[in-house]
Protein 1
Amino acid sequence: MLFGRTNVNKFLVEEQRRNPALAGDFSMLVSDIVRSCKAISHGVSRGALAGVLGDAGSDNVQGEAQKKLDVLANDAFLHHCEWGGHLAAMASEEMDDIYPIPAGNPRGDYLLVFDPLDGSSNIDVNLSVGSIFSILRCPGDIAKPTVEDFLQPGTQQVAAGYAIYGPATMLVLTVGNGVHGFTLDDEIGEFLLTHPDLKIAPETKEFAINTSNERFWEPPVRRYVEECLAGKTGERGKDFNMRWIASMVAEVHRILMRGGVFMYPRDSKDPSKPGRLRLMYEASPMAMIIEQAGGRASTGRTDLLKIKPDALHQRVPVILGSRSEVERLIRYHDEYDRGEDKPFTSPLFAERSLFAGGD
Ligand code: AFP
């Protein structure tokens, strides 16, 4: 087995031969992304030894305090992906505006969107974090890429993936032909195919949601969670487990490995934000991965992949994972919107007008 495993480069070349639509330098672009992830993995694993823990002393466009590793990971993506000639521009959760490929470097007709370090609150406590990316084609003039070029629904993604920096570093990738997992072999510096054709179990007994936000949830989500908590004696007739890692990459990875449902739903915490997670950097790429693995991804009312972004840093409600659970949650939203849901135990959530409205 030592020499038998497919590395990510071979996998990509084979995918490109299978699908001629993955034009020209696609596999080389993904190789640049892979190099970024290896560099970030190295920084994350060195932690305090490399002096990379702690705050950077700056805020990102969302007004969130940046960690040193947020900034370093962002720089790693820019540095590894700006010179290859495959991209017209990049957009990052950590940058206010799009980043056109600097003058002097050749440009290609792909766009790269990324969250360089997801789950940054986990960095300083040595827990799992990850990077998320999405590749689009540039529909406009590659000499003058604009924000509008990036505002495409998730269905237009050419590829999506993430790297998880956990006990082992893994890369999980889809180019529209299933979802495949590669594990980084530090000794040879390569990602090797270890988890081909991942499929999400359709049924589950695990859910992930930040229950400290319970008072802000809409009634359909409260109904779902109440039923899970009631366990064997309740509506669902089985006991559930709850998990919360505070890194979407880690939650999605667990769901890919053994099923489950992840929710960061619409809530009333901050009326200016319809959800916590970012559509282009988190929701769309993860939705592509989840659906390619046989799961389902929704806001509760709309398929995540069908949403055309209005803005680069737009936020959305996210419900994704095992198909049957997500479909149950969609049904609960529908029943609530049509006034056909069951009464709720809490008077707060029986007050329909508090949460009325769409996504
Ligand atoms: P950061 O990368 O900005 O730390 O955010 C991570 C994240 O967007 C997502 O990965 C988690 O699911 C979510 O935030 C966790 O948020 P809370 O635990 O604070 O609710």
Note: The first helix runs from residue 8 to 18.
Protein 2
Amino acid sequence: MIKALRGTYDILPPETTLWQKVEQKTRELFGSYGYGEIRTPIFERTELFTRSIGEATDIVEKEMYTFQDRKGRSCSLRPEATACVVRACLEHKLLNQQGKIHKFFYIGPMFRYDRPQAGRQRQFNQVGVELFGSYSPLADAEVITMMVRFFELLGLKNVSVNINSLGDKESVENYKDELKKFIQPKLGELCPDCNRRFEKNILRLLDCKVPSCKEIFSSPEMPVITNSLSDVSREHYKAVLSALKDVNVNFVEDSGLVRGLDYYTETIFEITHNSIGAQSALGGGGRYNNLVKEIGGSATGAVGFAIGIERLILALKQLDIPEEDQKEIIYLVSFDEAAIRENLVFADELRKKGLTAITGYQKLSVKAQMRQANNIGAKFVVMRGEDERAQESVKVKNMETGEEKITPVQNLADEFI
Ligand code: AMP
């Protein structure tokens, strides 16, 4: 038997209903903040990701699905969408007008060759947003608020918002110098990956999961990034936190928070929920003021986030959210061959009126058909024997009350509306 590849999953009904709900709420809520949906291809030139996410990140070093197309071009399945959205904006010259704000949301699959486990897949889905054209801390605060409100709208009330600031280029360079001074004498105690990252991209050291390295990084002498912020970045960060307080969004400042992508500047944030186990991050994001320029555009203030839908669904499944009103199902039972064909027509009429009608396609015993009606949770069963046919009518049984009623065929739909 051919099975799905490791780290990939099928999403089957009825769980798909939950996915549809997430997608519907995305459109509803993000739309109310002025975001429009963008859909970009799921594969791009590899260079787009190496230049944006960073050569020395886990994603680019070991997690990308990269292949050559028939013309020998290096392509990669998208591991995230921010770079793709920036590429699309530049290609369509959307960011040329000074002062104009552009807001996009996306929903779709991403691909990372990660070690599969609960909450970590190789094909997973994200819903995310990107806002272009503002350097204002209020944009950061609004984006974070929107993320929190999104979880609330879905019924997840007690998410935690962790926030930190990397600052601008100057701040990051200051911090890197501090970090170098602290780490240099300890290189012998750090893992080979950390030693390599020390040379290539020292900030990525903070992503290391090796316990002995983590212990060194949690020592009290470890430099704290927010202490290296320039005055401008410090003001920006303060203004973000103060705006979050204005809208009553609770947050925790976490100076150890770094994100696994190189393009972030200033504010970064992550939202977690304790119900989903070790992979507790539902989503994260931040500001990326240098990315548009790095990909070939002019300097543009930008901020965004991405939420992992699989993890969100995991969290939602733990909630006792009452099912939304299901449509009432009408099951059409056939007593004979003629009825099977008649039911095809009756069901068509019912569906044209917006009703949900299910029929069988082959002759089964009435008992077997009633069992099927029960299995699918039909509220009504419609039957038609010789007597009813002679009177141009049908018998309608309410499966909840057991009540039966004879109804003329031409009024059938009215019984259910
Ligand atoms: P990132 O793009 O790494 O900032 O991730 C944003 C969110 O996407 C995370 O918080 C997760 O919810 C989700 N995510 C990232 N990688 C995976 C994965 N391999 N499997 C499932 N969800 C993921």
Note: The pocket of adenosine monophosphate is lined by residues 80, 112, 114, 119-121, 124, 126, 259-260, 281-284, 306, 308, 310-311 (CB under 6 Å).
